[in-house]
Amino acid sequence: MYKSFSMELAGRTLTVDVDRVAKQANGAVLMHYGDTTVLSTATASEKPREGIDFFPLSVEYNERLYSVGKIPGGFNKREGKASENAVLTCRVIDRPMRPLFPKDYRNDVTLENLVLSVDQDCSPELTAMLGSAIAATISDIPFDGPCATTQVGMVDGEFVFNPTAAQKEVSDLHLTVASTRDKVIMIEAGANEVPEAKMIDAIFAAHAINQDIIKFIDTIVAECGKEKHSYTSFAVPEELFAAIRELVPAEEMEKAVFTDDKQTREENIRTITDKLEEAFSEKEEWLSFLGEAVYQYQKKTVRKMILKDHKRPDGREITQIRPLAAEVDLIPRVHGSAMFTRGQTQICTITTLAPLSEAQRLDGLDEAETSKRYMHHYNFPSYSVGETRPSRGPGRREIGHGALAERALLPVLPGEEEFPYAIRTVSETFESNGSTSQASVCASTMSLMAAGVPIKRPVAGISCGLVTGETDDDYLVLTDIQGLEDFFGDMDFKVAGTDNGITAIQMDIKIHGLTRAIIEEAIARTKEARTFILHGVMEAAIASPRAEVGPYAPKIIQIQIDPQKIGDVVGQRGKTINAIIEQTGVKIDITDDGAVSICGTERAAMDKAIELIRIITTDFEAGQIFVGKVVSIKEFGAFLEFAPGKEGMVHISKISKQRINRVEDELTLGDMVKVVCLGKDKMGRISFSIKDVK
Asked: Which UniProt keywords apply (predicted)?
């Protein structure tokens, strides 16, 4: 008999069924939030994986379109690779939970979530986050839980928790916060320039709700929790540490890592590692731990230098940003380009503009979002870190970084009415040594302005790091962390925003949470840094968006027609609209509300297309002047096409002021003639006159 537990969460019922399904998993829960249903499982291998020096955690979020009553589109009617939303959800589940597993644990662990049913007012992503945490906590897998997650929106200045679909549509904030019993462990946010103080209040309002969820999880664990299993520890032997310190004194390791050049530092560490491998060549039991031991020795050295001596590996002050540079228009013929450099981190972003028909179509579980007109893609080739590996397409990290920059820039983009374009920015990582995602925010802002996109305000991003000691009060926040400080530190706190407020946050940590004091200091530090970047560096490269799009970008003019006339413009099986396109060489998009976008590179051709559309959609009145092409000659007159799919007749008596016996005496097929509209004849046809044109 299974057990069921329920609580009220943000006005809806959250129910957790234990031992109902998937009983062979180490931990499994069937989650119900409203009508949203997700199966969350946690499984671990019996033995550790050989030959690795990391904890092998996998997180899966499997979207099934049957959950929203859909059949997958396209030729293949089976779900394929994970959607971007699924990848981002996996990352949001992974980030708060990974630090809560033992650092010396090497058994494979998989957290899997299967979305069975979706109630649009009850987020399946949130349900999966809670499900994974509960499944791992009640399982026998070593996990220092529980943890809990809450989503926060802001409507009319007021916070709403786990917002409904309607609330999300009008919300100025999309915040996700995960917590342990005492501290905040993960923050993910997109915001419409929300002030820093308001963001901090939202974070800790969510943290308070998380405490109620954790108490609820405690009641489940008390009844259903399994005893945690023992495991083989892969901790480095203390004797090895002692031997390494004798051969490599602390001063030597400090000298090896204390440099602002990444390649020099890596060469120094390789020299030390080679020296140790030679010294321990006869101690095979130590060699398998040597890489981890050198890593931990570096880590302890760097952390001690920073926390106790206030020294950073590259010699900077604690609040100092690395050397910055910005430039635009370095790539010819593209619609917009910009490069942003911060120390050994360098990003080039290219902007491409296209008609709205090029917007990305989405086939996911969110019924409210079927397409998006702004796409940000991020690439991270191996050469950017001096390595070699084949390119296999974007991984979860690349997708996550692209989504973060996209989220940061969305609030400042112009609406479709003001700027009727689909927009794609691609950030190419030329060099990487810390916080390329935030460099891509800066480069993308400048690239958009260079392309003539009228953004509301520039956006900049920066990352802060953290080194903690033995107590909550013993810590140091670092501005603009480089790769080594991220690698050996406790936090990567990325914040992007404008002068007016925050547009995006992503916080990764490696410890069991952050206090309010740390979060407040990090947010204040990023505000100070991004203000300097905006006005001290980016503004010098490009101060405002260009007045118009570049010469190689498509030009788009938007006009409005009566929605009831759309059929006239399109014509039977698209005959009319295709004729306009063929005549003018433009591209035409029409929405259901009658908005017509004409896209082309030559203004004269675009104006011609507009003229033809206006002719087709205008109710004809006597006295209007047109130019038509003779397409048919009869005994009684001639038929003229004055717009694609639109014809009228000139009676033989209206061709010339003198009497004529044959139409062919005055007109031949293909002639272009000016006519005046006489209204409609008895047969309902548009009647023209040539002789009455003034």
From this structure: Nucleotidyltransferase, Transferase
